[in-house]
Structure formats: C-alpha cells, structure tokens
Amino acid sequence: VLAVQILSVSVCVCVSTNRVHPLAVINVVSCRDDGSFSRSTSISQEKLLERVIHHAELIYRVSEESCTLFEEMFIPFPMHLQTNQAAYTCITKTLPIPSSRSEIQQISDKWLLHSVLMLVQSWIEPLINLQTTLDRYDNAPEMLINKTKWVSEKLISLEQGVMVLIKKMLEEGMLTTDYNDEDVFQHGAQPEMMDSVMRDYNLLSCFTKDAHKMEAFLKLLKYRQTDKYNCA
C-alpha cells in the first residue's frame, strides 16, 4: 500500500499497488492537520513529485474510462464524428499552454508547473457543474456518476498537491493563476437535448486530453530533475 499525501491539509490517500480499478482501491483517510504545509514539505522533493504524478495518472485513467462510458451510453454512433467539429471548442483552448514539442522542450520547470496549475484550476468548476447536469440525465449509470464525481474531487487534491510542490521546489510560496469564468461552458442554459449531451461529452473529452497533458508535463519535470543534462 502506497500512502499518497498531497493535500496541503495533510490528507493521506492509500492506493494499492495492484492493478485494480482505482475507484475500488482508493480510500481517503484523515490525518492530523497542523494547519500548514510543514507535514507535506517534510518529505523529499522527489517523493512528493512521484506522488503528485501518481495522482495525475489515476485522474487521467478514470477520466478516460468516464469519457468512453458516456460515449457508449449517450452518443449515437452516426454522431461520433461530430464530436471533433469546431462548434465544440475546448474551454482551455485560450490558455497559454505550450502544445508543440519544441515549445514544451524550451519552457522552464517553473512554467511546466504553472501550466499544470492553470489546467487544473480551469477544470475544477466545469467538472463540479457537470455533476449537476449528469444528475438530471435519465438512466445515467451510477458508475458514470461515481467516476466523474471521483475525478472532480481528486482534481482539487491535485491542485493542492501541485501548489505544495511549487512551494517546495521553487521556494516561491503559493503560485496562483487567473482565468476568466465567462470562458467556461455554462451548464445553466437549456439547449436542445442532443446538443446538451454533445456538449457534455465534449467537456469530458477535452478534460481527458488536458488530464493527459497534466500527467505528461509532470513526468517531463521528473525526467528533468533526474537527468538534467540529457533532456535537450
């Protein structure tokens, strides 16, 4: 059992090392909270980064499963190709996130962490709103609702873990980012049912892609930390 401690309030997440479904093996247990980052920063930088990466890996895996399940349940096969149309734009498209390989290789460790934090913070509210939307679906499988709820909760944990990592690695305290809430898809509107379903699916699909970016950026950061001279 691997204790994953990435919350700033010192929450421990116990994860089995066996390849079992994440939702079946993750239990959150309260630890004693001293009201500061002291307990989180007492472990080595390397261990902290490993734990944050593992958290990101689980989030990506479960989000991918959620997206596939949503598609199987609610998206008619003839409409699968429409999910890539420009009408359904990812909400993080306007963020200054590096995308090309050359851009990613050139940015600093600081900007890698900054990019992860921007992505995480941009998705917290949309995923919370998605929970309300899924609750209104007829015959929405409980597994889908549980998976998306789990991802939403763990994304908040990942945000806190990245902020602890920033404090420890860069010694700059809390790094915050700003994003425009108006750019986030609002679930309060009442479009035609199929359009609403397609938008929700696009939301899950876009988040899955961004979750993969978060994982990739964190793994690149780990690679740079362990072999700084061979990553050019």
Automatic annotation (TrEMBL):
Judging by the UniProt lineage, the source's domain of life is Eukaryota
Gene Ontology BP annotations: animal organ development; growth hormone receptor signaling pathway; positive regulation of growth; positive regulation of receptor signaling pathway via JAK-STAT; response to nutrient levels
Q: Which GO terms describe its molecular function?
A: growth hormone activity; growth hormone receptor binding
Query: Is Cytoplasm among the key words of this record?
Result: no
Which Gene3D superfamilies does the protein's record reference?
1.20.1250.10
Q: What is its main location?
A: secreted
Respond yes or no to whether keyword Disulfide bond is given for this record. yes
Keywords of the record, alphabetical order, are: Disulfide bond, Glycoprotein, Hormone, Secreted, Signal
Q: Which residues form a coiled coil?
A: none
Compartment(s) of residence = Secreted
What does UniProt give as GO cellular component?
extracellular space
Q: Which family does it belong to?
A: Belongs to the somatotropin/prolactin family.
Q: PANTHER family, alphabetically? A: SOMATOLACTIN ALPHA ISOFORM X1-RELATED, SOMATOTROPIN,PROLACTIN
Protein name per its UniProtKB record: Somatolactin-like
This chain's source organism reads Gouania willdenowi
Instruction: State the gene name recorded for this protein.
Output: smtla
